[in-house]
Amino acid sequence: MEKETILKIENLHVNINDREILKGLNLEIKAGEVHALMGTNGAGKSTLVKTLSAHYDCAVTQGKITYKKKDLLELDVSERANEGIFMSFQSPIEVAGVNNSYFLKTAINAKRTHNGLSEIDAMEFLKLVKEETGKFNIDRKLLQRDLNDGFSGGEKKRNELIQLLMLQPDLIMLDEIDSGLDVDAIKTVANVINSMLDGKKSILMITHYDRLLELIKPDFVHILNDGIIAKTGDYSLALELDEKGYEAIGIKDANK
């Protein structure tokens, strides 16, 4: 049976500050697939996932993005979130004065309302948090604090894992979620992500490191270079890259 296409990107051109970063990128992601994005700094990896999440820095000048048969470019950032797109940023913003628990409950209920479901109350929310965080031994005390305010890098990543578990998105985009984490923390990230791979949810993850890919085996590895996908393969491409480097596999650093 043919898998449903979740995301289709065609000839995507994107500018940031009037400089073209993506230069005709094409990508298709089907339900249940795990895609890894790799490439040198400045190749366009973060620009791609930021564009998909409607980040204000990114101006689409050409191309088409279809998400679950809808024109993604017609949806604003909140609509994209409610449609099941989740973005884990390299450095999540700190929001003093906004309680983390209140923020997450509001996000869950906005998505439920969007999908025609009734809102959950505080008791249901707390029960769900306890269940989901308990599966992976994640400290839920983070939810008692303000959103990312004064969080360490590791705490911000754990908080995003709680959001993932609670929101259950359909397209999960991870922008270097393994950056700065120790081995145990990376294992927790991998355990959470792998638990969500139910054959329907899809992953698009940016990483420079093979250690995460060892734990979350990608179906496809894409190497971005100068705004396009220059090479695609399976997990063995990541291993080859780790062993030989970019130039040895025919990828030149556009920054040099």
From TrEMBL:
This entry's Gene Ontology molecular function terms read: ATP binding; ATP hydrolysis activity
Question: Which superkingdom does the taxonomy of this entry point to?
Answer: Bacteria
UniProt entry tagged with the keyword Chloroplast = no
InterPro entries cross-referenced by the UniProt entry: AAA+_ATPase (IPR003593), ABC_transporter-like_ATP-bd (IPR003439), ABC_transporter-like_CS (IPR017871), FeS-cluster_ATPase_SufC (IPR010230), P-loop_NTPase (IPR027417)
Which CDD domains does UniProt cross-reference here? ABC_FeS_Assembly
SUPFAM superfamilies referenced in this protein's UniProt entry, alphabetically:
P-loop containing nucleoside triphosphate hydrolases (SSF52540)
User: Which ranges carry the ABC transporter domain?
Assistant: 7-251
Q: Which UniProt keywords apply?
A: ATP-binding, Nucleotide-binding
What Gene3D superfamilies does the record tag this protein with? Answer: P-loop containing nucleotide triphosphate hydrolases
Record carries keyword ATP-binding = yes
**Pfam families per record:** ABC_tran
Task: Return the similarity comment.
Answer: Belongs to the ABC transporter superfamily. Ycf16 family.
The name of this protein is Fe-S cluster assembly ATPase SufC
